[in-house]
Amino acid sequence: MTTLNPQIESKVDVLIIGAGPAGLMCANALAHAGVDVRIIDKRAVGVAAGQADGIQPRTIEVLQSYGLAEPLIRIGAHFPRASFWNPGPNGGIIRTQRTPSIFSETARYPQLITRHQGGIEALFHGSMDAKGLHVQRSTIPTAIVLSKDESELKDPKANPVKVTLKRLDLEEDDIEIVHAKFVLGADGAHSWVRNVLGIKLEGDNTDSIWGVLDVYPETNFPDSRNWTFIHSNHGTLMNIPREGDMMRYYIQLSEDPDFVDPKTGRVNKARANPGRLMETAAKIFQPYHLKMLGEPEWWTIYIIGQRVAQKFSVEDRIFIAGDACHTHSPKAGQGMNASMNDSHNIAWKLAYVLRGWADLSLLKTYESERLKFARDLIDFDRKWSKLFTGKPRTEENQDGISHEEFVGAFQTFSGFSSGVGVRYEPSAIVDKKHQSCATKLVIGERMIPHVFVQAADIRAVNIHDAMPSDTRFKVLVFVGNVTVAATLARVRALADKLDAPGSFLHKYGQGDYHKVFDILCVCAASKDEVDFIDVPQMLRPHWSKVLLDDTDMHAREGGGGFAAYGISPEAGAIVIVRPDGYVGMVAPYEHVEDISAYFGSFMVEKSG
Amino acid sequence: MTTLNPQIESKVDVLIIGAGPAGLMCANALAHAGVDVRIIDKRAVGVAAGQADGIQPRTIEVLQSYGLAEPLIRIGAHFPRASFWNPGPNGGIIRTQRTPSIFSETARYPQLITRHQGGIEALFHGSMDAKGLHVQRSTIPTAIVLSKDESELKDPKANPVKVTLKRLDLEEDDIEIVHAKFVLGADGAHSWVRNVLGIKLEGDNTDSIWGVLDVYPETNFPDSRNWTFIHSNHGTLMNIPREGDMMRYYIQLSEDPDFVDPKTGRVNKARANPGRLMETAAKIFQPYHLKMLGEPEWWTIYIIGQRVAQKFSVEDRIFIAGDACHTHSPKAGQGMNASMNDSHNIAWKLAYVLRGWADLSLLKTYESERLKFARDLIDFDRKWSKLFTGKPRTEENQDGISHEEFVGAFQTFSGFSSGVGVRYEPSAIVDKKHQSCATKLVIGERMIPHVFVQAADIRAVNIHDAMPSDTRFKVLVFVGNVTVAATLARVRALADKLDAPGSFLHKYGQGDYHKVFDILCVCAASKDEVDFIDVPQMLRPHWSKVLLDDTDMHAREGGGGFAAYGISPEAGAIVIVRPDGYVGMVAPYEHVEDISAYFGSFMVEKSG
């Protein structure tokens, strides 16, 4: 097997280092966008088993936009209810309150937890296979050199990043020099890319020590199948239902003197074992009984650390994403969610620049959007971990955390922990000027999912499913009741304006605007009155592209969409949704030229 | 490849002849039930393409109960709206009305149409693969002999059916003698099994000639994506939307003299071709234009025939199912639906008899239930085809079919054409005595789907998904609000009675009643008040088995289940659902002994 090859050189548009969730999300998106991409990983095989991860509602939306969510929803454990327990009068715990797990009203999906990261990775592998892209395993980078030639750095067609790759399973001389246009370092918390570029992490470890284990318990605790937070006089515990009858427990160990060196306050790992973790858990669960059946599926102990990289990019040619950028506590349920959303953010931007559709400057928005997110995430995690780790307020301990404070924070943080509250600040691709046209669609946040019906067949469809991650901008034209002559006249005038030679569609359409812009028309009209052919032809490139804000044939779904978005049916609005699903801008019919200005700030002009 | 083998003999519990939808449904069910089963087919390969088939809501429910529905729902074309067109004042067609496609309020799924029968068959193949069962292809039966020995016929352990099999791809002498306990002939409309057993078909061909073709049309007809019925002065046409932009047209040809021999009234196939069919269609669509883009995907012409076999069974040892039993017009959308539901009906009965759990007499209910269904189906099809084929009522033709008559029949027949209205008559396994305990759950009809929430985690679940086709009887214990002491006391008394040594669970439990009976407990109690552990232990064999008649955490689904079933929360009820999903009986708490009598009529007593 081991052969001595001459050193080879090659070129690639994007080289991704690391095939965890962050790297795979980007690789899959780029492969489906037709981008020349390679992905390498030091591991000889993928993750076959390992720690589970919670998947947030927003992450499921993103996976769904790539057609990958359904297996997860089917296989994952769901826990729609949260439950809060505190010390009772007799020393044992009593239930204080039960609430929904997710308070974000617009979340389309539940939160869930899946068997292991390997399951997520397998989804990407299957999807990449269909495009002929495979992870090159047992391969590491040994050197990375970025050209210092300014003209090269500014030339989108240049390959200014030189990466030396080495096969771990072959002889020493089997190396390859790759000349890449762009490199994404998605190589984990101990990122080689980050280190070699000298990017520092900001933040530190806390003194909060936790054990986590997955077990099949025998217990009479009634809220096992809920997302349960227990603040007891014996410490804090978080109970997460897993697949089948499995349970995950996060157990505070700082309280248990056996695990902690009293002098240093550091964890004494040698004394930890699943039996001891379960003993601690059993004390916390009193007066309910708790026993482990058989062996645990998995366990570990850890100290919470919260760190963010100083920057996510070097010269907009080398980027880092995922755990390479941020590490935080697992209890916030962020884990790989933040990682996948990092690379979902950058993938379409790389595709646009590589196709020559957008200026290199578009890539700056990756760092500006995701670094701010990561800092907010760490802030959130610090506050949440502090509340979580704190002692409960009791008669004796008036300085402790009150239930009201804790559950209040749980609700406040829900937009964050669900992922649907992420908001990007104004930038070249977030223009808040006409926010008043769609008062409830926050520009910079992800498009709100809502069920409409297709005008042609009255099939109910969530607007998210009409907006796949296909790298196109979605141009949602909200029109009123086109069966009213005056409204139709206005809509026809708008269609003419959109179809005029100088409109943004033609100006930035790269010769065939359907490649760049996906037009959908949403009518505030009754299914009994309107036909899909009533809408001007240019607003219905396909029969499925005309939606009605009405209920389905059995009045089970649909309706109320204009109200949910805060769009007036009389005035209408044009909503521009970015390829990653975030609202980029909104404009009234009268200001179509502002949409042109929006695209002009980062797109390259090229008409047909 | 061709070798001369000595004649071999073998034994099998069930031999299925024919691997179309009927045969595969039975083979898959039996394989998952652990039954010794073989399935043969004369075709060398499965159906790779071919005519599409509509799939009814009830068929999707059945497939879902085997875990097979999701790919179909995703891939199939949906058409929730029906549209009716008639001659207008100017001779062209005008729209008269639009209605839902399905009027059965309890239908859980839409009606849909899939690419081809091969897609359905592939689902079964995948599911059977998991159990190591594969279709033995290029194999035909050449002789079938049923023992005349009464004692052998009455011995469920005997193998009284001798079938000679021959491989079509090997030499003449490569035959095998199979001694089977039971044989299912699912070998299609020209069934060899039916013919060799001398079972006659009753019924005849009509003189109604139709063409059908799948095309990509260019048209300005606004209702293309609806299930559209056109009665024009140029004939009748049914328009069914297919996957993507494809359309299926059923076109009446009897009206077109070019296709019909004026003397015999028979179709002149030689003159038919897709272009000619489209010409006829285009005349019917006037004033809308219609043109075929490219070549048709598929086309044929046919004469409607409606026939039913005299009987479906010989000595309850050899059965026929599917097209071998009944042929009818494709326009009723029955097609393979009736076929799969035939063998879904018999599969669990064969499993029970073969396990020694039920008496051979149970198998009589296959013919009694499915022959009656087939006759009703043919009656329905005759009426429907007549209305469909008839000329529209116009000023000039007062004897024609009025729109009101047609759409009225469409609504009346919806329970039938959706498949959810199928009702089995009283028999050993349908006991209507206590119908008044659950006024809206019709005994003999399929259990009504409804969304409840799991008490343990408040996850919404359709009760259908809690009742998979796993061959177990579902014992649904509807209790009231168990947080009320008096109610709980009554429920505890019931649990004690159910768990008493002489109860039906123990009497017919075959040594471990959980193998035979799946117990679910449905409470009329609020999620905020009740814990799943409040229910007596024997009514919750697993935490997922306690359901609440309440909404989910976001009040999006659930609630109203007791009302939908017509069960009083104060009185409660016990509902016995057969393994095939049909309600077998209902009993009040006070008459648990009637449930014993029900099972006593066909089950074999065997306690632990």
UniProtKB/TrEMBL annotation, chains A, B:
Belongs to the PheA/TfdB FAD monooxygenase family. One of its GO terms (molecular function) is FAD binding. Residues 11-380 form the FAD-binding domain. It comes from Lentinus tigrinus ALCF2SS1-6. InterPro entries: FAD-bd (IPR002938), FAD/NAD-bd_sf (IPR036188), Phe_hydrox_C_dim_dom (IPR012941), PHOX_C_sf (IPR038220), RIFMO-like (IPR050641), Thioredoxin-like_sf (IPR036249). This is FAD binding domain-containing protein. Residues 422-606 form the Phenol hydroxylase-like C-terminal dimerisation domain. SUPFAM superfamilies: FAD-linked reductases, C-terminal domain, FAD/NAD(P)-binding domain, Thioredoxin-like. Keywords: FAD, Flavoprotein, Oxidoreductase.
